[in-house]
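user: At home tonight, take the chain set out below, taking as long as you need, and be ready to discuss the fold:
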Amino acid sequence: MKYYALQVMTREEAKYLALVRTSLQVEAPDFTNHGKFLWPRRKLTIRRRGKQKEEMASIFPGYLFYEAEDLPPQVYWALKRTSGFVRFLKNNQQIEPLAGTDKGLLLHFLSFGEVVDKSRVRFDENNRIQVLDGPMKGLEGQIVKVNRRKKRAKVRLNLYSQSFLVDFGFDFLVKKGENDSRKAK
């Protein structure tokens, strides 16, 4: 399977998906089951006014992925004409499926499902983060900043030579017998 990247209006990915599905049924009825749209998202714990709640956020803000063997002209025009569409990647003249590290990164997140949960981490004696499992596993070298209080880590992701920071949530895993030095005082 090939994965094509579409850039859409940021924070309007859900709206675009709803519009493009109806557009495909009207403009290209033979191709409605041709491919599958993928929208990788992550769960974050947001604390507002002392209350915590789970929210979903896009891993690649402003990007959707179309999984198919090829991109027929009818599907191409249905995707392009839908309101909220910005461009295909690499560009509209050279539409290329994801390859190499870009495809590997997408498949890494999709291996955890379309909605990724929090990673389980622990901190070593030098206060360095060690990812035990979850979506941040394998991305330790790309972690830029860790906020222990919010239980989030900023990870630098690259897609088509564009670099951006994404927050991922994590849960602490403490070994039996380990004491937090702040609690001991």
About this structure: Residues 118-185 form one domain. The chain has two domains: 1-117, 118-185.
